[in-house]
Amino acid sequence: MILRQKNKRSVLVILSLVISVFVLVQCMNSVNSEIEQSVSYEAFAGSEKCMSCHKDVYDKHLGTAHYLTGQPATENFITGNFNKDSNSYYYTPDILVQMQKRDSGLYQVIYYKGEEKMAIRKDIVIGSGVMGQSFLNWRQNRLFQMPVTYFTAAAQWSNSPGFPEGKVMTDRPITSRCLECHVTYAEGSGGDTLEPVNFSRDKIIYGVSCEKCHGPAAKHVEYQTGNPAVKTAKYVINPAKLSRQQQLDVCAVCHAGKMQKIKPSFQFVPGKNLADYFILDSVHNSSLAGGEVEVHGNQYGLLRKSKCFTATSTMTCSSCHNTHENQRGEAALFSSKCISCHSSNTTAIKTPTHLLVKRIKKKCINCHMPALESRAIAVYLQGEEKPRAALVRSHFIGIYPDVTKKILSNEK
């Protein structure tokens, strides 16, 4: 009798597991059925098509750094100064690059001993202007980075990051991996099959737009337009319904530092697994201790190493960031995210150091996610012998004694 009851319980347990697995597979199949198996330009609708149903979200997104990070180089997208007294960068006393507005567009004009040698038109602007902006130039169906960048922190034109000092470089090619984090899609050809170098000018979807996070949506727009009574979104991805890792992967494609590509650019879309497309760099504790990690490129890796991340099974980038809105600079808002998990009334928060900080609830990230110098965004400014680094907020949530001392000294 006892044996029969045990067998019955075993059967019920096995049956329960089978049902759970079946339900999970069905859920995953439901998500995967919304994902295009191969990505092409024709699969995209363009953000403008999203506006008819999602105007409020669309309008707010236009002010985000994601949207502005890759756009045609027109005056409304460029932050640099073209006025006569602020539009020049001297490499040497004899070599000058000047920003000029001409009838056919905006140019970087190279002079040697006062004689014009080359005029390069700005065709694409890369960067929202928060840190700075670099520029790309079309030559037939290839793109090249231009020699001069705008560095926002100093409100000056500068030598482009990584370019040689004292020499005008005009032939740095732009590959699909370069574009992948600044536009939603660019159709490439030629070169290495994993890293195309030729692009179709009329098949680029600028900026990190709606479809970068929700997947190509031409089929979604067609279906919802033809079936207005259907309120359940079809043929589009809702990142909130993905697994934790898949949600992180959506951000990691651009915020995980250097990654070795194993499939062509722009083929990864939300809902797929990033590890099937790239070999991700890892961030080691020894690197963190030595300050070797690049704060600009690998926010994902730094976050994963943080105790706040490892102590929970639910934290993702969107736990703190609303990608639909421009929240940059709102330290109090992001600090409130910290307080939502770390109550300000607990003993752990009421430490001697914390008690010295005024309005501490609004300053969590100033101490525990400080802005640090980036090695990737470091430029030579006019007349300076050493490169000036941009400050980027670290996503390794931790204790920074030197930063804390500086903040406390300002509290007095």
Describe the structure.
The protein has 412 residues and is an alpha+beta fold. The protein is built from 15 helices and 17 strands. Strands 1, 6, 7, 8, 9, 10 and 11 form a 7-stranded antiparallel beta sheet that branches. Strands 2-3-4-5 form a 4-stranded antiparallel beta sheet, with no helix packed on it. A hairpin with a 2-residue loop joins strand 7 and strand 8. The longest helix has 31 residues. The chain is globular, with a radius of gyration of 25 Å. The termini are far apart. About 4% of the residues have low confidence.
Keywords, separated by commas or semicolons:
four-stranded antiparallel sheet, alpha+beta, 17 strands, 412 residues, globular, seven-stranded antiparallel sheet
Number of helices: 15
Terminal CA distance reads 78 Å
| Helix proportion | 25-40%
Content of β-strand: 15-25%
Task: Work out the oligomeric state of the chains in this entry.
Answer: single chain
Largest sheet: 7 strands, antiparallel
Average pLDDT figure: 88
How would you describe the shape? globular
Number of strands: 17
Write down the Rg: 25 Å
Query: Which structural class do the helices and strands define?
Result: alpha+beta
Spans where pLDDT lies below 50 across 5 or more residues: 17-33
